[in-house]
């Protein structure tokens, strides 16, 4: 009798051990899934450094990071919009518009009624450009929240409107020289693109600061919580008294402002502003967010993932250039990476659901066993 | 098994378990369905009736156990395959495409084509549609848009679709909830006709008497388990109610000694337009007063306007006419302002309106009051965690912790989270729309106890229910809502179960309601 009991006990212990091992394996697999963007980045760096001596040099890494920064700044704004369950296709055009306005202001603004030329100071130029970007975002926000236009359509419309505005202001031509003139006290714009405080390009610093701000916004403010909730279940969030419309409005405004900052950096790096600048940049930004593990349906994603996503895209592009791979192949490889990223994300979600279901069935089985031992018990809440 | 059947069952559920997230909707349920007989399934909200129907019709697949058709185990991948084998379901929620015609809906996915098989043979479809609608006593134009039909007519279209599929087993989940009395008669006539043609019927309804009147066999589910099966002639209504509610009924409902305070919520002549069919009133000139410390129940069936009334009070639906006052002050503005003023709603549909599935238990609980924890600009997450943990303890949520995903909780515990979220906003008036829906018996008792506790603490509590037992035992005062109108305002001890059911059925107001 005691023998069989002991044996039973042993069997149970063995089963528990197997279950625990299984759980550990699933957990490891899950964290591997979680880190897939990091792993991809690591693989990229290793492969490119093996294939080219010039890839993993300090200078090259800094150059590549500067390229990454432009996309990452756009992607941070895009992340917020995507967390809400929206999309912002207008950011590339806003990049161009922002540069054009900087060009117009730095070349001197002709105020025809007064017959004077105004030369705003560089800080004022920056503020005005960011405000214009925010304005484009505000129009997106109004279209989406007040007029119920689908985000894809609203921002697609603004993609054309903002680009056309940039063309109209510049008359389709490039502003060739944004260096300013000492006599009009508006020099220094080129610092944004060419300055290197503490050895790092200004663009990289801006990326770091913005990433920290957005991360804090998401993690440690009610706004962040509201944003995740809105993307997860807008109805329930609204019924909880959250100002959902203001949240949606805000993410488009922030996305527009981020695009304007990117536009300023590009114009400053080149000390010239072309109205075509930023064409299709929205796609790279979306790709970075998606590779970073955010769900296009909203409610899931974070700053860390988005940054890694931007690095994957940037390092991949620059690495392929260094290796002399043709642009056609570059595009093909980038497309494949995006699709693989989304497939991996889907399988992670499926895997998690299976894991949850498996544990729930186990609980159910345990419950049924309890009940058969305890037929008197009527209620059972797992 | 007490089912005394001599013939072999056509469809059989064998030891079926179903798990949703952390909720066990069914726990080892078996059921035999026999050709030419009507099986009526009884059970309270959340007993697992709809889940079992979905599994029988392959809308959902069982977590464990299986389904047998003609004695052979089957595993249909989807409802379409089940329908091709003669198992049809008419859902509680209509599954028609309102933008298509009756004809298009009837033949959706099974279009009749001309020879060659490409073009739809509309003439043939129209003829068949006329025939089948004729069997249902409906002279509807097959080319009319479904969106132009009354809800009851849409229900009949749904039934016509099942008839067209030559169902051998026809499952009806609350088919009469939207039908008028004459339409119900027609439906019952069709059911009898189908039975004599050898079709097995599985039937669920909230109207117990009505359902019992057409039953050949009855089965009672409680808390995800099959607690009794019998032949209809061997049982009566009280037996069914006893089985549905279970022995511990008395302990389910807390005893109360209400201490009433000042008027907390006053509603005067409130009307609300029906959001789904503008031009109709979902709530029609309702007046009521709710005092602090009072727990008031609204008894009303689906479509009675109970949800619209509560959602309007919460600021979700606009007021068509009338005045609402909270503690003497006129209540206006959006949901946010009403929550700030001290009114919180626990919505009926937890998944759709109550919870954000992508967030944790704690984040869901603090969602409505998270801005309270701001110090300067950032959240004081420790203060938030403390408040969340004390709410979790206060509403007795069973969870691995505040960081657990909300989906890992059972239905009852998810409901407690939604209630906890509402309570955390510090309301003076607490509205709960069907708080016991999809909640098993143990958690149900907790929920009512919690509501009584809040009333004891001086909150005014207003809740809706479609369960007569709850309506008669939980509230201090009972309002009966029928088609948007308040038809009774009584002490629950002053009304009998029968009187309540017949009031709520609105038999005497049926005709006028359908013609205004």
TrEMBL record, chain A:
Its main location: membrane. The chain crosses the membrane at residues 35-56, 68-87, 122-143, 150-169, 198-218, 249-268, 280-298, 305-322. It comes from the Bacteria. GO terms for cellular component: plasma membrane. Keywords: Cell inner membrane, Cell membrane, Membrane, Transmembrane, Transmembrane helix, Transport. It is found in: Cell membrane. GO terms for molecular function: transmembrane transporter activity. InterPro entries: ABC_transp_permease. Residues 363-382 are annotated as: Disordered. It is a multi-pass membrane protein. This is Sugar ABC transporter permease.
Automatic annotation (TrEMBL), chain B:
It is found in: Cell membrane. Residues 11-248, 265-508 form the ABC transporter domain. Keywords: ATP-binding, Cell membrane, Membrane, Nucleotide-binding, Repeat, Sugar transport, Translocase, Transport. The keyword Repeat applies. Pfam families: ABC_tran. One of its GO terms (cellular component) is plasma membrane. GO terms for molecular function: ATP binding; ATP hydrolysis activity. InterPro entries: AAA+_ATPase, ABC_carbohydrate_import_ATPase, ABC_transporter-like_ATP-bd, ABC_transporter-like_CS, P-loop_NTPase. The keyword NAD does not apply. Its main location: membrane. It is a peripheral membrane protein. SMART domains: AAA. This is Sugar ABC transporter ATP-binding protein. It comes from Streptomyces shenzhenensis.
């Amino acid at each position: 009798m005691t023998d069989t009991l002991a044996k039973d006990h042993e069997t149970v212990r063995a089963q528990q051990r197997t279950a625990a091992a299984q759980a550990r394996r699933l957990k490891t697999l899950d964290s591997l899934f979680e880190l897939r963007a990091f792993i991809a980045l690591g693989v990229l760096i290793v492969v490119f450094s093996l294939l080219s001596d010039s890839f993993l040099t300090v200078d090259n890494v800094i150059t590549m990071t500067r390229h990454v920064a432009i996309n990452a700044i756009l992607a941070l704004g895009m992340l917020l919009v995507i967390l809400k369950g929206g999309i912002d296709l207008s950011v590339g055009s806003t990049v161009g518009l922002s540069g054009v306005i900087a060009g117009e202001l730095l070349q001197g603004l002709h105020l025809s009624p007064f017959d004077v030329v105004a030369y705003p100071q560089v800080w004022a130029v920056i503020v005005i450009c960011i405000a214009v970007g925010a304005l484009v975002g505000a129009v997106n926000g109004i279209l989406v929240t007040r007029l119920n236009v689908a985000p894809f359509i609203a921002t697609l419309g603004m993609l054309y409107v903002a680009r056309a505005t940039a063309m109209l202001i510049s008359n389709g031509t490039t502003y060739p020289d944004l260096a300013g003139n000492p006599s009009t006290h508006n020099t220094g714009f080129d610092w944004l693109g060419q300055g290197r405080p503490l050895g790092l390009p200004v663009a990289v610093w801006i990326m770091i600061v913005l990433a920290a701000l957005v991360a804090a916004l998401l993690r440690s403010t009610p706004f962040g919580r509201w944003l995740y909730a809105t993307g997860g279940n807008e109805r329930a969030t609204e019924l909880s008294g959250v100002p959902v419309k203001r949240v949606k409005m805000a993410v488009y405004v922030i996305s527009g402002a981020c695009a304007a900052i990117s536009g300023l950096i590009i114009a400053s790096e080149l000390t010239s502003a072309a109205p075509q600048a930023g064409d299709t940049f929205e796609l790279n930004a979306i790709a970075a967010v998606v590779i970073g593990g955010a769900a296009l349906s909203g409610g899931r994603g974070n700053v860390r993932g988005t940054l890694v996503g931007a690095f994957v895209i940037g390092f991949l592009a620059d690495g392929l250039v260094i290796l002399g791979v043709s642009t056609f192949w570059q595009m093909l490889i980038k497309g494949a990476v995006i699709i693989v990223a989304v497939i991996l994300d889907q399988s992670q979600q499926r895997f998690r659901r299976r894991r949850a279901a498996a544990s729930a069935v186990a609980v159910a089985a345990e419950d049924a066993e309890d009940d058969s031992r305890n037929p008197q018990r009527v209620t059972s809440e797992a | 098994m007490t089912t005394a059947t001599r013939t072999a069952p056509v469809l059989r559920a064998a030891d079926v378990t179903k798990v949703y997230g952390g909720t066990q909707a069914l726990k080892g349920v078996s059921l035999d369905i026999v050709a030419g007989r009507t099986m009526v399934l009884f059970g309270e909200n959340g007993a697992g009736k709809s889940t079992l129907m979905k599994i029988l019709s392959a809308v959902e697949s069982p977590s464990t156990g299986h389904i047998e058709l003609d004695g052979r185990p089957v595993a249909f991948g989807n409802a379409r395959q089940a329908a091709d084998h003669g198992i049809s379901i008419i859902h509680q929620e209509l599954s028609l495409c309102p933008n298509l015609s009756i004809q298009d809906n009837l033949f959706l996915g099974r279009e009749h084509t001309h020879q060659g098989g490409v073009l739809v043979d509309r003439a043939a479809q129209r003829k068949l549609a006329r025939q089948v609608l004729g069997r249902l006593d409906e002279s509807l134009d097959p080319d009319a848009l479904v969106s132009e039909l009354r809800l009851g007519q849409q229900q009949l279209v749904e039934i016509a679709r099942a008839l067209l599929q030559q169902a051998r087993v026809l499952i009806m989940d609350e088919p009469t909830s939207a039908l008028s009395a004459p339409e119900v008669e027609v439906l019952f006539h069709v059911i009898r006709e189908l039975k004599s043609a050898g079709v097995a019927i599985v039937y669920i309804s909230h109207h117990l008497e009505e359902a019992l009147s057409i039953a050949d066999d009855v089965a009672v589910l409680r808390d995800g388990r099959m607690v009794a099966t019998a032949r209809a002639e061997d049982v009566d209504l009280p037996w069914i109610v006893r089985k549905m509610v279970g022995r511990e009924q008395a302990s389910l409902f807390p005893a109360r000694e209400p201490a009433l305070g000042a008027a907390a919520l006053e509603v005067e002549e409130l009307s609300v337009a029906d959001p789904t069919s503008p031009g109709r009133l979902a709530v029609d000139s309702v007046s009521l007063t709710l005092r602090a410390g009072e727990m008031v129940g609204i008894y009303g069936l689906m479509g009675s306007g109970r949800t619209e009334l509560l959602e309007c009070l919460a600021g979700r639906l606009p007021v068509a006419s009338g005045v609402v006052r909270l503690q003497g002050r006129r209540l206006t503005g959006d949901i946010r302002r009403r929550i700030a003023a001290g009114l919180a709603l626990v919505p009926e549909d937890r998944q759709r309106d109550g919870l954000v599935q992508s967030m944790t238990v704690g984040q869901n609980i603090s969602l409505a009051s998270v801005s309270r924890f701001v110090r300067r600009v950032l959240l004081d997450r420790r203060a938030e965690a403390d408040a969340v943990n004390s709410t979790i303890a206060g509403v007795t949520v069973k969870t691995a912790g505040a960081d657990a995903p909300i989906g890992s909780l059972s239905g009852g515990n998810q409901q407690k989270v939604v209630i906890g979220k509402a309570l955390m906003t510090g309301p003076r008036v607490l509205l709960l729309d069907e708080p016991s829906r999809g909640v098993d018996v143990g958690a149900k008792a907790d929920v009512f106890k919690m509501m009584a506790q809040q009333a004891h603490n001086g909150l005014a509590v207003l809740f809706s229910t479609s369960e007569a037992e709850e309506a008669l035992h939980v509230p201090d005062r009972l309002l009966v809502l029928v088609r948007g109108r308040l038809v009774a305002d009584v002490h629950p001890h002053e009304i009998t179960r029968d009187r309540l059911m017949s009031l709520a059925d609105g038999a005497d107001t049926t005709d006028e309601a359908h013609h205004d």
